[in-house]
Amino acid sequence: MSKGLPKRSEDYSLWYNELVKRADLAENSAVRGCMVIKPYGFSIWEKMQAELDRMFKKTGHSNAYFPLFIPKSYLSKEASHVEGFAKECAVVTHYRLKADDSGKGVIVDPEAALEEELIVRPTSETVIWSTYKNWVQSYRDLPLLINQWANVVRWEMRTRLFLRTSEFLWQEGHTAHETKKEAREETLRMMNVYAEFAENFMALPVIRGIKSESEKFAGAVDTYCIEAMMQDGKALQAGTSHFLGQNFAKAFDVKFAGRDGELEHVWGTSWGVSTRLMGALIMAHSDDNGLVLPPKLAPLQVVIIPIFRSDEELTAIRKKANEIMDALDPLGISVKFDDRDTFKPGWKFAEYELKGVPVRLAIGPRDLQHETVEMARRDDLSKTVVNTREENLTNRIKETLEDIQRSIYNKAKAFTKEKTTSVDSWEQFVSILENKGGFVAAHWDGTPETENQIKEKTKATIRCIPLDQKQEDGKCVFSGKPSKGRVLFAKAY
Amino acid sequence: MSKGLPKRSEDYSLWYNELVKRADLAENSAVRGCMVIKPYGFSIWEKMQAELDRMFKKTGHSNAYFPLFIPKSYLSKEASHVEGFAKECAVVTHYRLKADDSGKGVIVDPEAALEEELIVRPTSETVIWSTYKNWVQSYRDLPLLINQWANVVRWEMRTRLFLRTSEFLWQEGHTAHETKKEAREETLRMMNVYAEFAENFMALPVIRGIKSESEKFAGAVDTYCIEAMMQDGKALQAGTSHFLGQNFAKAFDVKFAGRDGELEHVWGTSWGVSTRLMGALIMAHSDDNGLVLPPKLAPLQVVIIPIFRSDEELTAIRKKANEIMDALDPLGISVKFDDRDTFKPGWKFAEYELKGVPVRLAIGPRDLQHETVEMARRDDLSKTVVNTREENLTNRIKETLEDIQRSIYNKAKAFTKEKTTSVDSWEQFVSILENKGGFVAAHWDGTPETENQIKEKTKATIRCIPLDQKQEDGKCVFSGKPSKGRVLFAKAY
């Protein structure tokens, strides 16, 4: 199976595409730019969803559901919002089909044109704030802490599975607050929830920061983000949290009677992560043999493969496998015994490597004799023989899973550090981007003009102004104008 | 709060609409026919989803995700399918907006017309079977047992919250099998899963049956269904499971190499339940005071309301409430202590009645003195005083929740039975439908012509041919022609 997987060093992009398809994660559909998320890929997404949902609820949020369609006029109510999204909107103009003249096909019924066209939501601020208007009268109705799991559509010309698709799945939180301070705190809280999820569950180290004016969300005052480094030296934005100020409250006239009885506009936030995280997860850890999954998100954590030549051997191995499974079950460790006789052990080894199952156990007749089990780790492909008389296999598996979770995080952390370079001249800036890639920490004069010129010349954008930015006098690498601290540039997905 | 709720006996329809809004379940949105599912309503739906998802996985199904959009030409591939859905399709024709001449609004960019229009999925058979074509080569690839949680759109002219909306949420299972027998078994299995879910979780008794030709799914060979009786004597279809035969396999050319090496078309099923179940849940059990929820689906199962006049009293009551909550928590019983001082106890009583919280505890200073708690049941509005010295309150609450679940099921079961009438003449048929409503069990000659005429004259349709139909010679109530058994007619939602 994995034999044919392209090598990362030769064609990273092809390696990614092939991996996504061969590991049964997703595939392109017949509908341009839309993907099919296959059962194995979806089961990883479900694990992400479950954990994120738990974290959202723990921080006081409830789920709700708002319409898929947005009346065209709503989009225009917030000026920069419509500017940001108008160019990639799927538009519903009719509500009926009818038979064509041949009677064999269907055509759009010209008599069923909508009075006002509907936009398939690219994001839901407008439809949600138009609803919040009726939900908020007094400060007692605040805060509104609501999240939605949904599909959204942004018409993309160049698409890539998970990373950029016309339709994608996501969650979008939309909150309304009494004060600016509370809304600002919420924005940061959710950025931190995303960062904790990325680091603790995806084993993905991230930089927490704030976007420059050119890169922020259309309609936000400030956009906070988490940025991660992929193995090819390109950055990936893994989640954003927007402080909306009173922009949408003003656009949709959402006011409340404050504690002093005065009418004021509500303060808002919105925040989201999407199936893009699947792309980040795949690209951050996987290798030329296939997926490497953090145990906390692996749909299957342990696989047991019997090495047998007769039914009697298989029966004896099955007994042992059942013991192991019974012991792992109460710990919530998922495990499968693959006793199919239609595939050889070698084929199965490659298959589960491709699928990223963290721990593989192999048991043959000789193992039964010596009371041993061969244990292989997916992350470093190492193998050890565990003597189950001398060692508690269950504990050993549990510890190994924990160690894999830690190790792949540490590996990615070291990689991100290695791929972060401070530069002080334009020549260095260009050279690092060309030859090494990664994050380039450089002084910037703070103007969108410089940012744009750098982007045009190098394709690198400001990924973020890190929240832990050091105050440090310097000169912009491009313009030479004064700067107060370094920002992170990178080429990005 | 509930004071203003209309009475069921006076205006059932208004009672339903008001209840849905006032209990914070859902509301109409600014987009015609689309609803907003509010957090409280959504939390009930989440409980339904979680249980159904568990049942699907237990029966071997995996979740996946397929595109929202369906190319227009796909719909036409199965003749009866397109006929059934063409009249209610939302059609995407353009992929971009641009600024209008005033620069203040946006218009659809005429240069961004799609080559082929896209239909927002009304159901996903076509897009899924076009994908299955690539997933199935040999009998070894079968069965495919896949489910999808998604939003779908059917353009409805007359909409009602949850019962009939242009966009709704649902799950749709789509399976592919090697043999007709297996597909038929799957169809029945999923109908039974729905019936068990309705009866055990929603406390909703259902009739299992098969649809007549006129009422079956567009593209199915047979449609199995579960039908429930609402308090106003109208029936509600609560779930359907379709045996597709080889219809979609033929339309999309999905073939496999069988065990004998011959190429054959795959056998298919599809099955779904939607947010319509919310409507059934509300209408089956609720009363003039508000919602009545089965404990297994109630987002909040127990509420504790303190009766206090001073902070000292509240502090003492809080101590007792905390003890109760700590004892309920390990049993997985959800409980809330509502100690807000901005609302009076009487207001809170009415509010939690409206929201359908199954058990309410009230504790005042005198209760502390006598070691008592007043416990009220939402289903029958009965109150008892529990002496916590003599009785284990935790057990009592647990048993009461179980008893409520049972009681509301039994009540609905008795009601359904009472509302089912066997009739043998056309006069009786008309009279029962007019005066009593409910299911009318009557002989029918088996022709769509008779079925149509009965529908035109009475608005009643054949809800189903019950699976437990007795073989019984009789004469069609309408045509007088021979019949082999009774079918269930009713007016329906």
Topology overview:
The structure is a homodimer of 493-residue chains.
Chain A: H1 12-22, E1 26-28, E2 35-37, H2 39-58, E3 62-63, E4 69-71, H3 72-75, H4 79-85, E5 91-94, E6 97-99, E7 106-108, E8 113-120, H5 125-135, E9 144-153, E10 167-177, H6 180-200, E11 207-210, E12 222-229, E13 235-245, H7 247-251, E14 255-257, E15 263-265, E16 267-274, H8 276-285, E17 302-306, H9 311-328, E18 335-337, H10 345-355, E19 359-363, H11 365-370, E20 372-377, E21 383-387, H12 393-418, E22 420-422, H13 426-435, E23 439-443, H14 448-458, E24 461-466, E25 474-475, E26 482-483, E27 486-490
Parallel strand pairs in A: 3-9, 17-18, 17-19, 22-23
Antiparallel strand pairs in A: 1-2, 4-8, 5-8, 6-7, 9-10, 10-16, 11-12, 11-24, 12-13, 13-16, 14-15, 19-20, 20-21, 23-27, 24-27, 25-26
Helix pairs in contact in A: 2-6
Enzyme class (chains A, B): ligase
Subunit structure (chains A, B): Homodimer.
Function (chains A, B): Catalyzes the attachment of proline to tRNA(Pro) in a two-step reaction: proline is first activated by ATP to form Pro-AMP and then transferred to the acceptor end of tRNA(Pro).
